Amino acid sequence: MIKKTTHINDPLKLLEILPTVQAPIPEYLYLATSNARCPKAEIFIKEGDYVKCGQQIGIRHAAFFDQPIHSSCSGVFEGYEKHYHRSGKQIDFLKIHNDFKDVWDESVHTRTDEEIAKMTKAEMTEIIKQTASVGLGGSSFPSYIKMQTDRPIKTILINGIECEPYINADKRTMMEDAPKLLEGILFLMQAFNCHDARICVKAIHTEIFVYYNYLLSQDKYKGITMSPMKNYYPQGWEIAMIKQATGIDVPSGHLPSEFGIMNFNSSSVVGIQQAIRENKPVTDRRVTVTGNGINKPANFEVRIGTPVRYLIEQCGGYKNPNMPKVFILGGPMMGASESDEDCICTKTVTSIIVLDHVEHKEEACIRCGSCVLSCPVGLQPVTIMNAMKHTPVDKAKIKMLNPLKCIECGLCTYSCTSKIHVTDYIRRAKTIARLK
Ligand code: SF4
Ligand code: SF4
Question: Are 345 and 427 found together in one domain?
Fold first, then answer.
């Protein structure tokens, strides 16, 4: 019997309790000049220039926003090199020769409680913009854009659900950076004049609840509470989280802010805290390096710009060096697969999953309906796939099937009886549906 798929197996679940270790900083760090959201960049430095850690060295431009680029070490800019980005494209990276002195840029400085208490939302938003705080759950969406809303915010939700298997970045951040996370939440409550913030975590993570319930008993954290979430996939999808935490159903095409809700990923809030408290851009992030292809999986604190190859070496290298590998940057359901280890850790890389490549032969669709039953947004993935196989593709029909509702959760592929990469068809259908 076909069943709705709501759980994803995590063969390396125990890794979530391993403390984060600081990965050694490599001799060269590489900073992306562009990404999927920002195709263009202006670079402010020239070859041979000395740069400091946290110094702004360029800016990426998107249609509606900008992303400043900061150096994640001190050292010398040695020019450009092409490497693979999480987007799957080979792009230009700025190559910084680390001098291992960690000389910080003068712009990074600690603000006092009094200075922060006087700040307006507009001032905080500007700091968040200048320090390039983005969604560290994998979206890389600039946090300052969210902050710019004029709508009244009644509830701030902190997304610590991390529902994809293998990834531990948010869980380790919550356990290891709790004071920073809580201070970041207080800053957001101040900015939005909001008195209700809820930290959303799966109820199965009892250790997080015990720890936070203890911390939250302090008066200074008044208004912050824990919100237990169910254990299913994709509970971390913002619409599912909002529904469970508040009972509000945000309809497709609407923003949570229209309903008085603002949500941030937990690691992103730590980035925001560092921006407001220290004027510090995101130069590091937690990355889980795992999978059956490597010897010693680990949770690392990593400098932005670290080569994936270097992190694999820190994990004792490959278990079966002669087997071909698949590298997934991000979670196994929503991450990007790469066939080359020449990738770089950017802010969007929550995990690096190294798998021995096993050929899965796709079989013909048996119309079992498993993908339809499992789709959390109620699409008909098999119908969209079949429409995409038609030549020429009927654009009107694709639009009618509404693929833009797809959240790319990957469940249609995961649940497919015939091992068909259904999600790939839906992604392509989304591109067609966006055409005028
Ligand atoms: S990837 Fe898209 S179409 Fe497939 S199950 Fe998830 S939401 Fe539905
Ligand atoms: S695409 Fe896969 S899951 Fe969907 S109906 Fe066909 S065989 Fe079943």
Answer: no
Same domain, 160 and 124: yes
Q: How far is the CA of 367 from the centre of ligand 2 (A)?
A: 5
295 with 384, same domain? no
Give bridge partners of residue 59 from the DSSP assignment. Answer: 42, 68
Domain identity same for 173 and 274 = yes
Ligand 1 lined by 408 (C-beta under 6 Å):
yes
Ligand 2 centroid from CA 163, angstroms: 24
State the distance from the centre of ligand 2 to the C-alpha of 235, rounded, in angstroms. 23
Strand partners of residue 327: 338, 354
Q: pLDDT tier at 103 (50, 70, 90 boundaries)? A: very high
The answer for residues whose C-beta is within 8 angstroms of residue 32's C-beta and 6 or more apart is 60, 69, 85, 91, 93, 344, 346
Find out whether 124 and 187 touch, Cβ atoms under 8 Å: yes
Q: Tell me: do 142 and 246 sit in the same domain.
A: yes
pLDDT attached to residue 136: 86
Grade residue 185 by pLDDT with cuts at 50, 70 and 90: very high
Indicate if 76 and 210 belong to the same structural domain. Answer: no
For the chain, count helices (H), then strands (E): 14, 17
How many domains in the chain?
A: 3
Determine which residue's CA is closest to atom 6 belonging to ligand 1.
Answer: 409
Domain final position from 278, 304, 323: 278
| Nearby residues of 269 by Cβ (< 8 Å), 6 or more positions away | 158, 181, 184, 185, 188
Q: Is 420 in the pocket of ligand 1 (CB under 6 A)?
A: no
Using the 3D structure, point to which of 356, 391, 421 is the last residue of a domain.
356
Instruction: Give the CA count within 13 Å in the CB-facing half-sphere of 353.
Output: 23
- State the sign of the Cα–Cα–Cα–Cα dihedral 379, 373, 408, 425: negative
Q: Is 231 inside any structural domain?
A: yes
Say if residue 41 is in the same domain as residue 175: no
Place of tokens 């709790």: 178
For residue 185, being part of any structural domain is answered with yes
Judge whether 131 lies within some domain: yes
d(CA 38, CA 360): 34
Per-residue pLDDT tens over the stretch 260-296: 999 999 999 999 999 999 999 999 999 999 999 999 9
Which tokens go with 370? 């498993």
Which amino acid residue places its CA nearest to atom 1 of ligand 2? 382
pTM of the model: 0.92
Q: Is the CB of 386 under 6 A from ligand 2?
A: no
Same-domain pairing of 192 and 260? yes
Question: Is the predicted pLDDT of residue 1 greater than 70, yes or no?
Answer: no
Judge whether 94 lies within some domain: yes
What's the domain range around 327?
Answer: 13-106+282-356
Tokens in use for 435? 């055409």
